[in-house]
Amino acid sequence: VRARVMEVEESPGVEYTDIGGLTEQMNEVRETVEMPLESPEMFTDVGIDPPSGILLHGPPGTGKTMLAKAVANQTDATFIKMAGSELVHKFIGEGAKLVRDLFEVAREHEPAVIFIDEIDAIASKRTDSKTSGDAEVQRTMMQLLSEMDGFEERGEVRIIAATNRFDMLDRAILRPGRFDRLIEVPKPDAEGREKIFEIHTRGMNLADDVTFEALAEEISGASGAQIKAICTEAGMFAIREDRTEVRMTDFHEAWAKIDADEDADEDEVS
Ligand code: ATP
Questions:
Q1: Which of 77, 82, 128, 215 could form a disulfide with 72 if both were Cys (CB 3.0 to 4.6 A apart)?
Q2: Would the ipTM clear 0.95, i.e. be above it?
């Protein structure tokens, strides 16, 4: 069971330079994860405990997972990822045990970064303990909190959680000693979008007419994940026309397509 729900990567291969924008967020993650792992004596000398857990919150596809992977990579820590939804929905009745396993695996692989995506799935304030499914969710969350609280010998294990639904979180997980470092990861601004284009086109064969400043303005509201999709789609337009160079028009058409697809998705939901 363990192997199927936990993603364990010895070196996740994401560098800070792969992340566009998010400078402040990156600094904060480094301060809370990197410093305690690399120079624990700084904290013992001053006589404070390093922050326990970090919570990254913001819209989908903005780089939360990338940040967690980059800091694990930088510190040569093992990256262990689990999704909150998998903890409770995939193996009914196993949630609390999986959480125990998660921390056990992390301690075996020290230094390690535990990344819990979609933490809202196990820590939502709407949970009603009277129904059995919700009781299971609560047990899973209690186990997580007790692992974090009883973390005297936390050693070289850091915990990062992420959510797209900050407003739904049970405040209990935000108490001091738990996920007490909140970092908002917003959608990129125009400058960030331009940077993200540059990152994702590094390996692409671009025509001379391609510039990203105006394009970045045009696609306001796009996330990093969408920008990556635009780059791939632009390449597909070139391939369809049997070209090896990607032109400005390909990027425009790619955005029109991706934007239209998103709108269609939204219509379906509502
Ligand atoms: P979710 O909330 O949906 O899990 P997330 O915030 O964790 O999303 P990531 O998985 O980090 O998002 O990003 C998805 C992909 O989008 C990345 O692999 C990367 O290719 C691209 N991406 C997102 N944000 C950025 C960014 N700031 N810079 C560069 N690429 C980005």
A1: 77
A2: yes
